[in-house]
Structure formats: structure tokens, C-alpha cells
Model the fold of this input.
Amino acid sequence: MSNVLFRNSKYSTTKLLSTNIPIIEKSSHDKYQSINFLPENKQRLAEGGLRLSGSFKSSVDGKPLVSIVTIVYNGQEHIEETILSVLNQNYDNVEYIIIDGGSADNTLNILRKYDNSIDYWVSEGDSGISDAFNKGIRCCSGEIIGLINADDYYEADSFSSIVSSYIENEKTENVFFGNTNKITVNGRKEVKNDNNISWCISVPFSHCSSFVTKSYYKKYGLFDTKYRIGMDVELLMRGLKSSNYIKLEKFIATQRDGGVSDRNRLEGYKEYREIAIKHFGVVSGYLGYLLKVLVFYKNKVF
Done:
């Protein structure tokens, strides 16, 4: 990387900056086209970040670029904690993209507070969670992409562990994942018990604790916008036959209970059934759905 600027050694996102705009490689086989900026939108409320001041990032020798995407809508309560969990990582080649859905609370003021540490942020309406994630992923320049919601946060040193595994297990379409903590509705921090029974029930790890290579997205595509809750499950199932899913024995992120999937659990199960049928067949799909519903009513999880 030429023309490297060392702006601020305090944050993970401000240590390796360049005035060179990343060259976007194009292939007829790619399922989507990467971009440096989202197209102009008359409904856009605001945008900001390092890119607008002419600072960009790319991978350098021994330091693959990690891109993080956060989507948020009226997330003033926890968004700053999420941002700081990215900025305070000890890995020093990190790119941070935030897609805001047009917040009307204090979220935009918080984004402006970190304008010189976030690479690119935009506030505008979208058509749902999948659409917002897709916007963010299109703007990613990194080889490794992590998605963290605005009420969750990364544990310390998570990125260094992911990058080490990426270098050790380099393959074009990999998914890396670790363990997850959760914060209950009562405010307790506990270990989250992920599904370990079958993929036809759900992905056996939490999305916030997984990182996916950019080449995986290029090969299998972005999120299917028809799914409102199970979009991450469907996307992560696409590569089961030909990609590596690599487990790290480390806690990667902490997730708060009460998200959209928790609030709409039965609706989510119906989406999971459709997704399981798509990837595993009718029998596995319905068996997985029945098991989910039985556990739901047994534990009265709402």
C-alpha cells in the first residue's frame, strides 16, 4: 500500500490509511459488484466517514483487511458500545462500514462523533435488514467480512484470532466462527448455547460471531431480501457442499437477547423450515421445524 497515512494509533481503523482509491476487480462470475460509495439517493439524510475525506484501505503483506458492517435503526442506546468494540480491537487493518436506516433518535450524532474513525456511513431508508446488510457488504474492500448489529459487540482481540485462522487455513470460500456470549433481558451476561444438533434446524453458531470471506459472497451472492428473519441462515447454508466452516475456540462476540428473531420466533421458524427444505429436502425441513416448535413451547421462549 503506497501513500500510507498514519492518522491515529489509538483505533484499529485509523492505523493504515491510504490516499489510493481501491481498484475494484470485476469478474463475470461474481454474484454482485463491489462499490466504494453507495449511489446517490434523494432520500439520504446524511453520510460521512474517512472515505469522504479521501482516505481508503486495502490489504497489505501479512495484514489482510478486515471489513466490519453494522446496520442500525434508532439504536442510540447501544450503538456507541458496538462502535468502540470495533475501534478498540488490537488488529490494525480494519475497515468499518455503518448503514443506518434513517434513524430519528440520537444515532446520527453518535456516528458523527466517530466520523474520523468510521470508514463510511450512510443514513437513508431501506427495504429491511437484508437490504441494509447488502448495502454494507457491497461497500466492503476487505478479504474478511464480519457483521455486527447495533445492540451487540465484539469481545477483545477477536479480529486477531480470526485473521490468524484465515492465514492458516487460506481457501477462497471460508466461514470462520467462534463462541458467543449473550446478555439476557435481565442484564446478565451468559454463554449462549448454539444449536449443535443439525444444520436443518439452524446454523450451529451465531451470526455475530462469524466472519465470511469476501470470495464466499462473490461466489454465493448476498442476502436474499425475501427473508425477514432467517436471511443469515439461508446465506450460510449455500456453501455447505464446497466451503470450509472453521471453528475457533474463542468467544468472538456478545449478543443481546430481544432482537428481531427473538421477538418473532415462530415466524422465524417458518422461514427456517422453508430454508431447510430448500437445502436439505422436505423431510429434513419439516422435522427441523417441528423440533424448533416443540422446544419453543417447552421452554416458553419469547
The chain has a mean pLDDT of 87. The first strand starts at residue 4 and ends at 5. The two ends are 49 Å apart (CA to CA). The chain has nine helices and twelve strands.
